[in-house]
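pls design
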């Protein structure tokens, strides 16, 4: 059986990998949650993500000289993004959204010593079963993101899991891009922020607007 040719995945996160929980988040304490979000698309649907992001800049008169981050968006802008992101995937089903959220206070102490392994595990748990049937997987993280600090470990870990655990023939290519120059990572940033806002802050309006269009998993919530 021939494998589908290629899937492209833009990756970003929201939250941090700090472990200080004696103070409230943003007031000296670390985030209680960490969310990784992925935007999956094909070479044929790639063009629709820049168009989507540019439409947001135009609608809200955002400064085009710098990247707009989720943290800087108003509630109205966030809800509009969520609604339009759903419309995008309904119109182009090859575009898909997924995320995984970890509740950090329940992470065991010995795992906290090498948090990049937690990051890699979260990504594998969330995504590998969706990627295993492709011939080539292009993963595009932001080079400033947490997981890149440990060099090639993320790519090595995911490739090993694909080949040996998932019995997949897929080849994984990790190609970091600066989010300011990559519209699909900008969508992933907003998606991660949307999910994180729901679990970290209980701010769920944008989350509800996604109408279940985000494949989501939780880790260490119990």
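designed seq:
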């Amino acid at each position: 059986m021939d494998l589908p040719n290629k899937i492209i995945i833009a990756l970003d996160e929201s939250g941090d990998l700090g472990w200080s929980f004696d103070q409230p988040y943003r007031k000296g304490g670390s985030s209680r949650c960490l969310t990784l979000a992925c935007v999956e698309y094909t070479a044929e649907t790639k063009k629709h993500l820049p168009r989507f992001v540019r439409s947001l800049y135009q609608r809200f008169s955002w400064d085009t000289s710098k990247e707009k981050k989720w943290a800087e968006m108003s509630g109205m802008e966030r809800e509009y993004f969520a609604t339009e992101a759903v419309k995008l995937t309904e119109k182009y089903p090859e575009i898909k959204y997924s995320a995984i959220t970890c509740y950090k206070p329940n992470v065991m102490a010995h795992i906290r010593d090498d948090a990049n392994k937690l990051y890699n595990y979260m990504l594998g748990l969330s995504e590998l079963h969706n990627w295993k049937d492709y011939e080539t997987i292009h993963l595009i993280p932001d080079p400033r993101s947490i997981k890149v600090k440990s060099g090639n470990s993320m790519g090595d870990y995911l490739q090993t899991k694909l080949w040996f655990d998932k019995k997949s023939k897929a080849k994984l290519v990790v190609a970091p891009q600066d989010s300011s120059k990559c519209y699909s990572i900008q969508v992933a940033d907003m998606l991660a922020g949307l999910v994180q806002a729901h679990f970290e802050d209980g701010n769920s309006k944008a989350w509800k607007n996604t109408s279940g269009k985000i494949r989501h998993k939780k880790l260490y919530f119990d």
